[in-house]
Automatic annotation (TrEMBL):
Record text on subunit structure and interactions: Homotrimer.
Species this protein is from: Blastococcus aurantiacus
Identification of the protein by name: dCTP deaminase, dUMP-forming
Family: Belongs to the dCTP deaminase family.
Gene: dcd
Keywords: Hydrolase, Nucleotide metabolism, Nucleotide-binding
Lineage of the organism: Bacteria, Bacillati, Actinomycetota, Actinomycetes, Geodermatophilales
InterPro entries linked: dCTP_deaminase, dUTPase-like_sf, dUTPase_trimeric
Length: 219
């Protein structure tokens, strides 16, 4: 079986600062499958039945982080608040119940590993969105070079509780080829990547590189 156009483009070396002949694109099902088969794209555990026309479904793991609302008077992204969340796990085969207005952290069952020329975006499932479940609040983008579980920002905007079953389909991951490989992929020392190799639902580490720009105007 010959290499796909996508695969041929991935194996060709590009000169720094030049535009590759193959432009950035959204990967199709055949290209996702080829990248996994070559070991360039890591998805573990991998189920070929989850591959969609231009994405791959990801499933929900069984661990969640709930917020300890009584520990702090407010949340400050500049401060280290280690006990802001608590890791919980449903008993046996029980679901996790997400009540109206609640927000918790979950994670994908799959560990995702991206090469230096693929980025990804996590999208929710339409069927779950129609029930009032939001899979992520803002952090749907995954940088090239990332490896780890993807932390989910789960919200219930419905009027009734929603049961979250470990192992259920929770979202879909779309992959994009960059116009050229990233010079410094996620995980490089230059970025101090805070979530590389994360396992399970990982709380915010914003305090580690919190900065503020000067906003006061000269008198």
């Amino acid at each position: 079986m010959g290499l796909s156009r996508f695969t041929r483009g991935l194996t060709r070396k590009e000169e720094p600062g030049t535009f590759p002949r193959l432009r950035a694109m959204l990967l199709s099902d055949r290209d996702i499958t080829a990248a996994i088969a070559e070991g360039r794209l890591g998805i573990e555990p991998y189920d070929p039945g989850l591959v969609q026309p231009s994405s791959i479904d990801v499933r929900l793991d069984r661990f969640f982080r709930v917020f300890n609302n009584s520990r702090y008077t407010h949340i400050d992204p500049a401060e280290q608040q280690d006990d802001l969340t608590t890791l919980v796990e449903p008993d046996g085969d029980d679901p996790f119940v997400l009540h109206p207005g609640e927000f918790v952290l979950g994670s994908t069952l799959e560990v995702i590993s991206l090469p230096d020329d693929l980025a990804a975006r996590l999208e929710g499932k339409s069927s779950l969105g129609r029930l009032g479940l939001l899979t992520h609040s803002t952090a749907g983008f995954v940088d090239p070079g990332f490896s780890g579980h993807i932390t989910l920002e789960l919200s219930n905007v419905a009027n009734l509780p929603i049961t979250l079953w470990p192992g259920m389909k929770i979202g879909q991951l779309c992959m994009f080829r960059l116009s050229s490989p990233a010079e410094h992929p996620y995980g490089s020392a230059v970025y101090g990547s805070r979530y590389q190799d994360q396992r399970g639902p990982t709380p915010s580490r914003s305090f580690r590189n919190f900065t503020r720009a000067e906003t006061r105007r000269p008198a």
